[in-house]
Amino acid sequence: MPRPPHNCDTPPAKERMHDAFWQLLKERDYSTITVTDIVRRAGVNRNSFYYHFSGLPELADSSILQLVESTKISLPGPDADPNSTWRENVTHMLSSPAQRERLDRLALLAGPHSSSELLESLRDFTRLTVLSFLQLDANNLDLDTDLLLDFAVGGMLAILR
């Protein structure tokens, strides 16, 4: 398959492979998805796939990380009402088509076509993203903060189910 011209509307190969991953995960179990399925759906060749990823698990991790990092939330300021900020975040996530698509894709990772590996990647990436967002060092967490973080991430995953 020839490379699309730079001035065309076709998304880059890596983006098409990410999209193919999500489309296929919506249709069937992760354990049945193959690299061949991805390249066919994305309209790329195997060399392009292996240029970007070492295999399907790396594509899955890359897709999940990209999704988690692009899901935006805001923390309440020091004088803000946390309930109001929470409502604004939820309203934005449910009313924005792009955010809604992200939530739908995240829900696929907790759904019937997922796997324990995908769920573990989602848990790990969400935890790292929250740590970064809160500007906390994972190596210097006290036990209470570590447990609270695990509880919060577990709650987010339960909501997705």
Written account of the structure:
The chain has 161 residues and is an all-alpha fold. The chain contains 8 helices and no strands. The protein has helices at residues 13-27, 35-42, 46-52, 56-70, 82-95, 97-109, 116-133, 143-160. The longest helix is centred in the last third of the chain and has 18 residues, at 116-133. The chain is globular, with a radius of gyration of 18 Å. The model has no long low-confidence stretch (mean pLDDT 85).
H/E topology pattern: HHHHHHHH
What value does the Rg take, in angstroms?
Answer: 18 Å
Main β-sheet description: none
Shape: globular
Number of helices in the DSSP assignment? 8
Strand content: under 5%
Provide the structure class: mainly alpha
Helix fraction? Answer: 55-70%
- Kindly report how far apart the N and C termini lie: 38 Å
Compact summary:
It is built from eight helices and no strands. The chain has 161 residues and is an all-alpha fold.
Supply database-style keywords:
161 residues, mainly alpha, 8 helices, 67% helix, globular
List the helices and strands and how they pair.
Elements: H1 13-27, H2 35-42, H3 46-52, H4 56-70, H5 82-95, H6 97-109, H7 116-133, H8 143-160
Helix pairs in contact: 1-2, 1-4, 4-7, 5-6, 7-8
